[in-house]
Please model this.
Amino acid sequence: MAKSPFRRLIKKISDGDFPGKQVDWGGWAAKVSKRDILEFIDETYRGDRTYCDPKRMPHLYERMQSLLAYVHSLPDDGFFALVASEL
Model:
């Protein structure tokens, strides 16, 4: 099962792995590279069949593939905001 992306991002900010801070009530943002985002996704969802197995949950698998395609399309040399919002 995927680890909570929200908690994982807050921990990475708190531990100093990503520069960032709380930007609103229940909202955090980190300044990251494309590689950071791809590693964050991999660490969070690696082995989670819900997102990685097209037979298990096809709609979530498709969303993950779409997300990865978008991230791969980002410039390699830019910085981006990785944002987590508590629902």
The helical segments are 5-14, 34-45, 49-52, 58-73. The mean pLDDT is 93. Residues 5-85 form one domain.
